[in-house]
Amino acid sequence: MLLYLQPDSDKPLYQQIRDQIVTGLATGQLFVGESLPPIRQLAVDFGIHYHTVHKAYDQLRQEGLIRLNRRTGAVIWCDPPPPGFAAQWREQVRVLLAEAWVKGMSPDDILATCADIVRSFQPVGGLRSGAEAGSKQAAGNAAHGGRGGSRPPGRVRLDDEGGES
Q1: Judgement on whether residues 114 and 139 belong to the same structural domain of the protein
Q2: pLDDT by residue for the chain (165 residues), tens digit each?
Q3: Number of domains in the chain
Q4: Residue 66 belongs to a domain
Q5: What is the extent of the structural domain holding 33?
Q6: What whole-number distance in Å separates Cα of residue 52 and Cα of residue 50?
Q7: Is 136 part of a structural domain of the chain?
Q8: What is the pLDDT of residue 122?
Q9: Angle at which helices 39-46 and 50-62 pack, to 10 degrees?
């Protein structure tokens, strides 16, 4: 999986990192048990401040989507949702759908868009563990690499597969 950062976006960089990791988990590009790149390494690779990556990882930790510790680093995890999660999620979805409605999207287009997005996700129960994903480890290993090569700025690979994700 590749992470792409858009420095000119209105969305903060830490939020871009967080959102892409969540999407990667939902679409099956990242798996429970996989390691993420160390905070310092990801910051160097993107040329951003350490605290920006730390903030993204800490938000993911608070949401129960990664575990952080000194020995294993950041590892994809999936805690059960906390009490009240469904109500909070529903309100967030309500606002996003209201924005689409106000901007003139038809109900059919809104529903079709939602259905397309949901179809792209992997079932949560079907997420493979790191062991089932084979020896695949998220970047932080030799394949992750530094800032060299032909990789455009703002893009970092999170896995050790040869092809683009």
Answers
A1: no
A2: 889 999 999 999 999 999 999 999 999 999 999 999 999 999 999 999 999 999 999 999 999 999 999 898 999 999 999 999 999 999 999 999 999 999 999 999 999 999 999 999 986 544 444 444 433 333 333 333 333 333 344 666 676 544 443
A3: 2
A4: yes
A5: 2-78+127-157
A6: 5
A7: yes
A8: 81
A9: 130
CATH code for position 34: 1.10.10.10
Is residue 144 within 8 Å of 162, Cβ to Cβ? no
Residue indicated by tokens 């350490």: 50
Strands 73-76 and 66-69: antiparallel
Helix extents (H) in 5-158:
13-26, 39-46, 50-62, 85-102, 107-119
What the block records as the tokens of 22 is 């969540």
Angle at 117 between CA 116 and CA 123, to 5 degrees: 110
